[in-house]
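Review form for a predicted model. The reviewer records the input and the model, then writes brief findings.
Reviewer: anonymous (R2)
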Amino acid sequence: MRDWTEEQHDLRAGIGRWCDALNEGYPERERNAAFDRDAWKLVCESGVLGLPFGSQWGGLDQSLLTTMYVLDELGYRCRDGGLGFSVTTHMVSAGVPVQRYGSAALKDRYLPGICDGSTIGAHAISEPDSGSDALAMRTTAVRRDGDWVVSGSKTFVSNGPVADVFVIYVRTDPAAGPLGVTALLVERDTPGLTVGGPIEKMGLKTSPFAEVFLDDCVVPAANVVGRPGSGFLVLDHVMKWEILCSFIVNVGQMRHRVDRCVEYARGRTQFGSPIGSFQAVANKIVDMRIGADTAGKWLYDTAERLERGENVTVDIAISKLLASESNVASALAAIQVFGGNGYTTEYGLEAELRNAVAGTIYSGTSDIQRNRIARMLGLDKKKSLERT
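Model under review:
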């Protein structure tokens, strides 16, 4: 059990005060798969977007742990899972890498808008043919007259249809492997950059996806985030933050789901007794609680280790795996507890299940996380065969 400070409690309570307004109109937004600009304005006014950024750019100068503590409450109180996903995507996709690796000029130009939400951020990593194999990216950038000329395409770009700036990962040296990838910050209206229409998807419907096409898109050399060839270093840092921030929102959602199920199981009567008195129902809710608490502990503990500068490669993989799969199990169990009501759209649980499934795919699939953990355990098949 962590001892949170009064300031951290106040920040957490502060986001809660905005969530009733954020929840207004959500069912209609979900049905229409619509990103709501008015809801985004409320998010901007709440100050949550500036949590981890320096006060010199309008941020709140808060730690990773404090940021997660507030986002946990956002997940608990805000029913719009897509909006929560867009919030964390915005914060970590552009803001986090620019603050950590960007030049002073990039920070001064872009972080104020990222902190107040007037500039919406996204990052473009995945490509149509490479999937989880980021090293197989085909989007390239070549030097011309001191600038970078980018050609290729990206897909599954969260916030893509509404983003103002993109951090785009490109290959700048085909022969250099991981050291041949560079991160470039590209504005939406840059000639040669085209954003495709929203991609329809199973869940997270209020957080829009799109493809991004780059056709001889000229990007100033000053817009390199970090330095040429450091793209995988930037991406590794960003993915740690993405997993910790987006999945702590899921933990908040799981906590809310447990409370809903407890309340429902106490009030719903079958065969003359509250359904919570039946062991089969009670056990489902107990497992939901254990899943939420375990995922939360791994995420917070991993964030503490990351802030201390420790190696968290395995911890991140385990945290992501636990949180994503516990969220799916929790949503499935909640639908079973609610029975026929849980299967209807009115109660919102089917949307939570659809949202939860996405977590087993984005930020590295469950299989990718298991493979990463196995490698760290020395179970790399090819290396084992070579030793024999």
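Findings: The radius of gyration is 21 Å.
Further findings: Residues 233-383 form a domain with the Butyryl-CoA Dehydrogenase, subunit A; domain 3 fold (CATH 1.20.140.10).
Recommendation: see findings above.
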